[in-house]
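Run log // design_07
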């Protein structure tokens, strides 16, 4: 647990070697999603996964969940933990936008970029989905933790998941289940998606 700007952030690094691989999960995901992959990569080099604020073991914050903010939060986290480049940044889904921005900001220390089914900045329109507009009902509910919990309690929203826990290592399943059903995960994920079409387009490098 690393304290960044008064908030605890969870960083999990294993093995040794260079370059260090940084794993960035998409919206609604966290370090546990990388369990199998992190163990395999560790056979070759050092590899780190982490939980962005509001996910799993990391404290929530009120900072925007756009690519610029997320990528700028990653740099002091790595430095505070004593993790030094060169880095290979790996981004899955919405995490692709975050690592593209991180690579642009930290181009001297990032020597590789891997995009795993990464979300394209124009993908919402490309697949026929309506744009998520800031200031709408979803944004208003996601902006306040207590309001989000009330909305869940009265049935306005429902926190659930469609992931098969059998796909994950057995020893991670209890923690994964708690994480997937947490209000903070759902709220932070909503905030990330709301920020995406507005502020992530600049992340392409």
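design_07 sequence
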């Amino acid at each position: 647990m690393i304290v960044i700007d008064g908030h605890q952030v969870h960083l999990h690094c294993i093995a040794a070697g260079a370059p260090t691989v940084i794993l960035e999960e998409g919206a609604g995901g966290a370090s546990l999603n990388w369990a199998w992959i992190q163990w395999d990569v560790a056979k070759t080099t050092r590899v780190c996964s982490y939980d962005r604020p509001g996910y799993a073991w990391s404290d929530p914050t009120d900072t925007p969940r756009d690519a610029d903010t997320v990528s700028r939060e990653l740099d002091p986290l790595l430095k505070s933990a004593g993790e030094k480049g060169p880095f290979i940044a790996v981004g899955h889904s919405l995490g692709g936008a975050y690592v593209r921005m991180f690579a642009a900001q930290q181009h001297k220390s990032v020597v590789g970029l891997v995009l795993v089914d990464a979300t394209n900045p124009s993908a919402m329109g490309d697949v026929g989905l309506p744009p998520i507009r800031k200031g709408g009902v979803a944004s208003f509910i996601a902006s306040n933790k207590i309001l989000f919990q009330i909305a869940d309690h009265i049935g306005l929203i429902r926190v659930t998941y469609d992931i098969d826990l059998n796909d994950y290592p057995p020893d991670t399943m209890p923690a994964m289940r708690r994480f997937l059903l947490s209000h903070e995960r759902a709220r932070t994920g909503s905030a990330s998606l709301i920020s995406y079409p507005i502020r992530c387009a600049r992340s392409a490098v």
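DSSP finds eight helices and seven strands in the chain.
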